[in-house]
Design a protein that fits this description.
- The chain is of the alpha+beta class.
- The chain has three domains: 139 residues, Gyrase A, domain 2; 82 residues, 2-Layer Sandwich (Alpha-Beta Plaits), CATH 3.30.70; 81 residues, Elongation Factor Tu (Ef-tu), domain 3, CATH 2.40.30.
- 20% of the residues lie in helices and 32% in strands.
- The strands form five sheets. It has a six-stranded mixed beta sheet, sandwiched between helices. Strands 16-19-18-17-20-21 form a six-stranded antiparallel β-barrel.
- It binds (6S)-5,6,7,8-tetrahydrofolate.
- (6S)-5,6,7,8-tetrahydrofolate binds next to loops.
């Protein structure tokens, strides 16, 4: 495929010079911003991620800042997840749905203060929705996109690298909690989170001006840990079942279909948008659900189209939404949406790949 031509519409990040210098080979666009897709190859990047440590420019995980007396009420209107027990210093993965219960986004919510949050969004224009809800409900809050760019440090050596730069206390940060750490006289929010199953942190870099100095310091300190530039890795995220908004689910899907029912508390999330629409499905369960799909045969190509999942007789019973070759598991790993009739673990199905029909198995557990 041809390259992405630079333009002001496709925003660069505070780390783009660093990403370029590290030899990025592929880009995608996410929240109208550059996001690297690979540096060496998906395979090499994946193997390195599982063994060492990587620095990821995930600036495209833009923040929606919400501050004011009604911030807490606003957030509970925006998500069917019960936020009453969320404390300052905590992060939560929250479904955000429309009035029909359709997924609008699956952000990480960061609670900065009783009256202040960051919504760390996936790839959809959630800022418009939040601003409109604030207007419609007449909430007393400010809503804006701050100059905050997440930098993820992922991999088994992430703690060692981060301790070098931010001190030993970084090791005490618990999963989906954050601490505040000093860097160049600025307080940075650093959470133990990130879009991989290999462990690590996300630094919410507050101010573009400190972006490259921090990037360079991480690479200098990481030399002995074999640090490399990386990015959310297609293989590892499918093996781990990490969902990609726009790929694995859209506003056509409910959180129950996405396996995010555990993040919906309809009994207590009173007043949340979409609650009424979701109630029946909360009782009966969805009619289709996201599943791991193990696809036989030669290495599949990556794809920008959903591949039908069919029965032997050719009836469509689902679709593959993300797929790639896994070298660790020596098979084609995929995420798909599968009808209730075929979603039980171990069900044999067929996938209509571009190069022909393949045997596949539906799995209830992902590979990692
Ligand atoms: N970090 C931050 N912002 C983000 C992402 C992120 N915004 C966009 C996108 N990623 C949002 N989507 C996800 C999807 C999965 C997870 C986080 C954000 C995730 N899931 C864990 C899992 O499934 O194992 C844990 C979820 C939980 O138990 O709460 O981490 O990556 N800042």
């Amino acid at each position: 495929m041809a390259s992405i031509v630079p333009s002001r519409r496709v925003r660069r990040t505070p780390f783009t010079d660093g990403v370029t210098a590290q030899g990025v080979k592929g880009y995608t666009v996410y929240n109208r911003m550059l996001l690297a897709t690979f540096f060496d190859s998906f395979h090499y990047d994946c193997a390195h991620l599982k063994e060492h440590v990587q620095v990821w420019d995930v600036s495209c995980e833009r923040q929606i800042a919400v501050r004011g007396p009604d911030a807490k009420s606003l957030m509970q209107v925006l998500t069917p997840r019960d936020l009453r027990r969320m404390v300052v210093g905590q992060c939560m993965y929250i479904p955000v749905v429309d009035e029909q219960g359709g997924m609008l986004n699956d952000p990480v919510l960061v609670k900065l203060a009783e009256d202040e949050y960051w919504i760390s969004i996936a790839d959809s224009d959630l800022l418009l929705w939040v601003k409109a809800i604030v207007q419609g409900y007449d909430f007393n809050v400010e809503v804006w996109e701050p100059d905050v760019s997440p930098l993820a440090i992922q991999g088994p050596k992430a703690d060692d690298l981060m301790a070098r730069v931010f001190g030993e206390e970084i090791r005490d940060v618990r999963f989906f909690r954050y601490g505040k750490f000093q860097y160049q006289n600025r307080e940075l929010v650093i959470a133990r989170s990130g879009y991989s199953k290999q462990g690590g942190f996300e630094i919410y870099v507050d101010g573009s001006d400190i972006g490259m100095p921090l990037w360079d310091e991480l690479f200098a300190a990481g030399e002995e840990f074999n640090v490399r530039a990386g990015c959310p890795n297609l293989i590892e995220r499918i093996e781990g079942g990490l969902l990609s908004y726009g790929n694995d689910m859209t506003s056509e899907n409910t959180p129950y279909e996405c396996g995010l029912g555990k993040f919906c508390n309809l009994e207590t999330a009173i007043g949340s948008i979409g609650r009424g629409a979701l109630l029946p499905q909360a009782l009966t369960g969805p009619s289709q659900m996201i599943r791991a799909i193990d696809i036989a045969g030669e290495a599949t190509p990556v794809s920008d189209q959903a591949w039908p999942i069919v029965t032997e007789g050719g009836n469509k019973i689902g679709q593959v939404t993300s797929v790639t070759r896994s070298f660790e598991f020596n098979t084609n790993v995929a995420i798909g949406m599968v009808d209730a009739s075929h979603w039980v673990d171990g069900t044999n199905v067929f996938v209509e790949a571009p190069d022909g029909r393949r045997e596949a198995v539906v799995k209830e557990k992902f590979w990692i």
